[in-house]
Amino acid sequence: MDSQQNKGYRVISMFDRLIDGRGINKKQEAFTHNVGEKTIQRDLNEIRAYLEKAKLDSHLEYVRTENVYRLTNTGESNLSKEQVLAIVKILIESRALLKSEMSDIIDKLISIVAADKQEFIRNIILNEKHLYVDLHHKKSLLCLIWALSEAIQKKKIIKIDYLREGEAIPTEKILKPLAVIFSEYYFYLIAYDNKVEKDLPIVYRVDRIQHLQELEQKFQIPYTERFQEGEFRKRIQFMQAGELLRMKFIFKGTSPQAVLDRLPTANIVSKKDEHYLFEAEVFGHGIKMWLLSQGANIEVLEPIELREEIIETIQSMQENYRYI
Question: What is the mean pLDDT for each group of 10 consecutive residues in the chain (324 residues)?
Fold first, then answer.
């Protein structure tokens, strides 16, 4: 006879794994717990009955292609198959995490979808998932991102050892952490330098943080001066900070909408002969990189200092191509 203690452990173990997005193979479970498959089937039936009685937004289904039982979410508050597919595509393109971490997250997202659609999504993203390439730093950042986020919420000053690219010895930094932002393959910490009197946001690549220590000291920022990630994102390009400036430029390309999408603070001031005059508020360093990437489609008018920098860079580029 199956003891109640053994049965309780077995059922809780299966339920825990189902909740975690994993599948239950009846034959394997019977072998692991040294019971018959009919016993495992009764356990699964009890789990199914509990889900229905508790009115949870989950349903226990048998996935024939995998020969396992899985939980499928059925509530309206859950992600749809279309939403899951879109999120998975975005995640793969981001290359934000290690391949093993990304694969685990994708599998758990797919498990949300109805069982008969899971294999369909897996087949769609099979090649992309298989060919996923880790970034060169090959670091797991999930725990570090969480620790930084906790320090931000608690407004705790942190001490980090930061290793810049090309350097052999990390530099110690004492910072007021403001936000963690993801942009173009990397996670970034936005922070104020605690040793500098003027609060200017500084950008640090999270994967270059060698060590993090949360200090006991707290920092305070007046509510009206609080850092707002959304407003920061509107004004920064390629996560390159610098002084905040207002600029004017003429756009001569075919899609002004692409400019408005790239620069959320931009406004079209006027239009003449398919040339658009734009104004925008941006941080200086990153915007220069974007402006140069547009080639002859953009002419910077103001500020004059930025226009002169662009001219100087173009002249330097010409020197690179003077001789073959």
Answer: 72 86 88 90 89 77 87 68 89 90 89 79 87 88 94 93 91 92 87 81 90 92 69 62 81 87 86 88 78 89 90 89 74
Residue with token string 């990390």: 170
Contact 290, 238 (CB under 8 A): yes
**Amino acid type, 284:** G
Total-model pTM: 0.63
Comparing CA positions, the residue from 271, 275, 273, 278 lying closest to residue 249 is: 278
- By DSSP bridging, strand 202-205 and strand 298-302 are unpaired
Domains within the chain, CATH numbers bracketed: 4-73 (1.10.10), 81-130 (no CATH), 142-227 (2.30.30), 244-320 (3.30.70)
Burial degree of 18 (CB within 10 A; 0-12, 13-18, 19+): buried
User: Which DSSP state fits 135?
Assistant: -
Residue 223, amino acid: Y
Supply the pLDDT for residue 250.
Answer: 92
- Exposure class string for 221-258: b at 16+ Cβ within 10 A, else e: eeeeeebeeeebeebbbebebbeebebbbebeeeebee
Q: How far apart are the first and last CA of the chain?
A: 86
What is the pLDDT, as a whole number, of residue 161? 95
Element holding 118 (H helix, E strand): helix 115-130
- DSSP symbols for 52-95: HHTT-SEEEEEETTTTEEEEEE-STTSPPHHHHHHHHHHHHHHT
pLDDT at 207: 93
Triad 220, 188, 83: Cα angle to 5°: 110
The label of the residue with tokens 């229905």 reads: 52
Place of tokens 């200092």: 305
- Spatial separation of the C-alpha atoms in residues 272 and 280, rounded to whole Å: 18
